[in-house]
Design goal:
Blueprint lengths: L1 H15 L8 H23 L3 H12 L6 H13 L3 H14 L4 H13 L3 H13 L12 E2 L2 E5 H14 L3 H12 L12 H10 L2
Helix pairs in contact: 2-3, 2-4, 3-4, 4-5, 4-6, 5-6, 6-7, 6-8, 7-8, 8-9, 9-10
Length: 205
């Protein structure tokens, strides 16, 4: 009897070490597909402005294994739309830390960081995105966030210019304005009114 109990205990130890948690390949694939499907559904709700429903789908997807990163990107954008900014930042940060080339998550992180007054992080995230040439920032400014086209190269450049402004770097803010947003603008950088006039130009964009 005692030896039987020992055998049972040994089996329990073996399974607790991970042997019982290994999924067959077909089940693992099914879970991954399910996470992707949930994320696709989440984006549909997001695009319709149904953010609570989108949030439910993205949260469900984010709990699946293996990790499907776009679900965290979706959480970031949905929390941003709901103005739950700390959660937005944390989900974007997770997506970016897992994949440093995740362009849309970098853009999302820049916008959410700006809204919580973390202007340096906003700039850093945009710079990383700009370095990824596929965005089209550098050459033709063609970037548009596929799920919300109001987020585009121009709107993100405005955020970058404003971030420099609020950090007190008026010259770089002006460079962003003149180079990417309003080439025809002409302000006297030596004028005492330069910061005030610059902000007016930025806010009118």
């Amino acid at each position: 009897m005692r030896s039987r109990i020992i055998k049972i205990l040994l089996l329990l130890v073996i399974f607790s070490c991970g042997g019982g948690n290994v999924l067959p390949p077909e089940e693992k694939a099914a879970l991954e597909e399910s996470a992707e499907k949930l994320t696709i559904d989440g984006w549909k709700y997001y695009e319709e402005g149904k953010y609570s429903e989108a949030l439910t789908k993205f949260i469900e997807a984010s709990k699946r294994k293996p990790v499907f990163l776009d679900s965290f990107n979706g959480l970031g954008w949905t929390y941003f739309a709901l103005h739950i900014l700390n959660y937005s930042v944390s989900n974007f940060s997770f997506a970016v830390s897992s994949d440093s080339t995740f362009e849309d998550a970098l853009i999302g992180l820049s916008l959410a960081s700006f809204e919580i007054n973390d202007y340096q992080e906003s700039i850093n995230s945009i710079k990383k995105a700009v370095e990824l040439d596929s965005l089209g920032f550098v050459f033709n400014g063609s970037y548009k966030f596929i799920h919300n086209e109001k987020v585009n190269a121009r709107s993100v450049r405005k955020i970058m210019a404003l971030s420099y402004y609020y950090l007190g770097n008026f010259i770089e803010s002006y460079n962003q304005l003149k180079t990417y947003l309003k080439p025809q603008v002409s302000l006297d950088i030596n004028s005492p009114d330069f910061p005030r006039l610059l902000l007016i130009e930025l806010e009118e964009l």
